[in-house]
Write the structure tokens for this entry.
Amino acid sequence: MRTNAALAKVRGWNIRETQGRTCAHVGLCGGGCPDCLVGRAIRDGKRLDQEITTDEGRIFAVTTLPLPDAAGAAVQFAKEVTEERKRSRQLRTLSQEASAANAELVATLDRLRTTQAQLVHAEKLSAIGQLVAGVAHELNNPLTSVIGYAQLVHEEVAANPALVARADGLMEDVSRILSESDRAARIVRNLLTFARQQTAERSRHTIEELCARVADLRAYDARINDIEVVGTFADDLPPMFVDGGQIQQALLNLVLNAEQAMRESEAKRVEVSAVMEPSCGTVLLSVADSGHGIDSSNMARVFGPFFTTRGVGEGTGLGLSIVYGIVRDHGGQMWATSEVGRGTTFFVRLPVQTDHRAELPGAAPRPFVLVAHGDAVSRDFISAALNGWGLQVRSVSSVREAVESLAEDALNVAIVDRTVVEMDPQSWREALEQMEGRIRVVAIASGAADDDVMRCLRETSEIVLTPPYDLCALRQALVTTLGDTL
């Protein structure tokens, strides 16, 4: 083998020490002699171009040419491109980071727009709540006096038969006063519940209880406007772990929306129903009206902030968007169907815990799930759904946090989105390999089959959910990975 002084310098040889060296000693043939670059070029009689990385990490663009006039000989030209490749990789990394930052900014802007709409409505609700609370507290005092004196009169009349005989119907009148006063007091209590400051604390409620509160609030208006309100609830409905005030507010907004839609209708009927969906682990609530309906061109916009089909000054267009936000905050889903001239039905699907064995003394802890998603809205939605099913949840937004959670937490399942894994697929793969199959993975992703990130997700996950997916699909993925422990 012959070399020039430049190659000898690269390898750190004296020019006289190059005699007897082979292409394998040089290290620019790719290795695997005789099937290396030199061997293949001589055998096939073709020019070969390839980048070679040496053991020291230096990168060379190598061209290997067979010599036609010298049998069994080839010549190699090499140009070091280490710095160029490093700069290229840095630029590619910067480009990916800039794209990720831009996507995050766009998502943040969308969330800010939604939040702004919710804040506007929240300020109005706060003002109304303060007014209602003040009125309710003022009404409580005279109501307490009315009920107290009515009870005294009732007891006095009951203890004096002669008085009852002289005043025909007195007992019945006093009983009516007590009954109506109790009803007024119940309405005041409902007003105070509605007007209270909303908190993030959740507790167990039944859907029948929350619907009954809303029905009591709207009973007077329904009676004077001749609106028939019908409630149909399945017998097997389990309690829900929700913020009762927020769900009540959502139901009230749906009922008010239904009442507005029926102002010009001859037959006014609102039907509220709820059924259990065992395969989804959810309760499906529906509020149907016999109003004017919604045109198909507007159906896709009904949950958007500030969209309304009412006249000027009759609506802010915030009611349904607030309902949608409350449902999403509880890990639920919402949609509507409508037929112009016949009415509209709004559906709300909320997760419920159907197995209450975890509440028994000595029961095993509920499964622990990692939710790794780059989008905060989606991450919060999935976490809320899992909480609704009674699972323990840790949510993270980066591959570093996800890898740390794999190592530190007693996880059963990891739900990971493509946006997290594509930050560093190799680290994610290595972290899962160290778990030796102790954690089962559900991926959320879409893309070409030959995409590197998709390949990584398909190889490391048991199930791949393709957006958009619904609560039932998410539930089935958890059933597959958790089995009877869900």
Remarks:
- Confidence is low (pLDDT under 50) at residues 311-317.
- The longest strand covers residues 269-277.
